């Protein structure tokens, strides 16, 4: 979410008020997009819904929104001209004065149209929304036997937490990522809530985290990477003051989890009904792509 919010904020400086003159699709995966409905539409506003970038193209009695999910490697770049640019260009939106270019090396990104806000409403609660309170978090966690870190990635619970930030949040809150989510105490839930809000606010302030290819619409990289405490630091010293531990890595639900076996496992893992112990750390692999 911090990366998507960063892109949205940069697009707000460029897009509102411009009209879409033409749309060109260069990837068969995006061929279903009805480009005729986009031509001539004026961009009224740019917003974020969960992990989607939403362009409001509505006109009187003609509601329409363009939704873009960047996934792993998608990028939306602003260009002063409509030049093709580099490889991996999947779509080009020629605007009055400039163009919006959609790049996606791995082609996982999604570009779609919506006719109602309900079509792009996030399934869970937004992390920075007023309704995301410790009480709301406690209600969502209650009874869950899922390990905490994979639980944080569930977009039907809280929206916008990717793989990097889930590991960072667990470490900042001093919580074992293998703990059943429903086993957290009220004190731990308040700590989890506080650290989640703090980390996401800071990540947005830093323009997101660039591990591989993330950048905003003007090609600027995010610098939250310098604030990461555990992600991709396997075998390195834990940065928590006074902790002698080393960062370990394990795989949960097919994603890498980084944590400190010392300061994040001070208390025994309490299991809720139906939960099972999780495996310990596994040997690190090389050449992994970032898992946001």
SSE topology sketch:
Elements: H1 2-12, E1 20-25, E2 45-49, E3 52-56, E4 65-69, E5 74-79, E6 89-95, E7 99-104, E8 110-114, E9 125-126, H2 134-141, H3 148-152, E10 158-159, H4 163-172, H5 186-205, E11 248-252, E12 255-259
Parallel strand pairs: 9-10
Antiparallel strand pairs: 1-6, 2-3, 3-4, 4-8, 5-7, 6-7, 11-12
Helix pairs in contact: 1-5, 2-5, 4-5
List keywords for this structure.
alpha+beta; 292 residues; N-terminal domain of MutM-like DNA repair proteins; 2 domains; disordered C terminus; four-stranded antiparallel sheet; elongated; Helicase, Ruva Protein, domain 3
What would your notes on this structure say?
By secondary structure, this protein is of the alpha+beta class. The chain folds into two domains: 2-119, N-terminal domain of MutM-like DNA repair proteins (Alpha-Beta Barrel); 125-259, Helicase, Ruva Protein, domain 3 (Orthogonal Bundle), CATH 1.10.8. Helices cover 18% and strands 20% of the residues. A four-stranded antiparallel β-sheet has the order 1-6-7-5, with no helix packed on it. A four-stranded antiparallel β-sheet has the order 2-3-4-8, covered by helices on one side. Strand 3 (52-56) and strand 4 form a beta hairpin. The radius of gyration is 21 Å and the shape is elongated. It starts with a helix and ends in a 33-residue tail after the last strand. Mean pLDDT is 85; it is low at 268-292.
The top level CATH class name of the largest domain: Mainly Alpha
- Spatially, the strands of the biggest sheet line up as 1-6-7-5
Mean pLDDT: 85
* Helical stretch tally: 5
> What class do helices, strands and sheet pairing give?
alpha+beta
- Helix residue percentage: 10-25%
Residues in β-strands, percent = 15-25%
């Amino acid at each position: 979410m911090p990366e998507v919010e960063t892109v949205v904020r940069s697009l707000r400086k460029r897009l509102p008020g411009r009209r879409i003159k033409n749309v060109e699709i260069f990837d068969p995966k995006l061929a279903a997009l009805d480009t005729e409905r986009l031509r001539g539409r004026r961009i009224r506003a740019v917003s974020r819904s969960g992990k989607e970038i939403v362009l409001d193209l509505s006109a009187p009695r003609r509601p329409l929104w363009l939704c873009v999910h960047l996934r792993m490697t998608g990028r939306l770049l602003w260009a002063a001209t409509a030049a093709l640019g580099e490889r991996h260009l999947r779509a080009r939106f020629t605007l009055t004065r400039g163009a919006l270019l959609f790049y996606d090396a791995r082609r996982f990104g999604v570009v779609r149209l919506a006719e109602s806000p309900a079509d792009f409403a996030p399934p869970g609660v937004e992390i920075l929304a007023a309704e995301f309170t410790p009480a709301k978090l406690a209600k969502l966690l209650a009874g869950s036997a899922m390990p905490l870190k994979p639980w944080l990635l569930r977009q039907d619970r809280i929206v916008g937490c990717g793989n990097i930030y889930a590991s960072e949040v667990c470490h900042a809150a001093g919580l074992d990522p293998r703990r059943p989510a429903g086993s957290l105490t009220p004190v731990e839930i308040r700590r989890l809530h506080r650290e989640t809000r703090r980390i996401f606010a800071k990540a947005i302030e830093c323009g997101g985290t660039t591990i591989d290819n993330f950048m905003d619409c003007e090609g600027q990289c995010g610098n939250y990477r310098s604030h990461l405490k555990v992600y991709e630091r396997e075998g390195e010293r834990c940065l928590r003051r006074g902790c002698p531990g080393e960062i370990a890595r394990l795989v949960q639900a097919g994603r890498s989890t980084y944590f400190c076996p010392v300061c994040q496992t001070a208390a025994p893992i309490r299991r809720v009904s139906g939960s099972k112990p999780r495996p310990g750390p596994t040997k690190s692999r090389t050449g992994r792509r970032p898992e946001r």
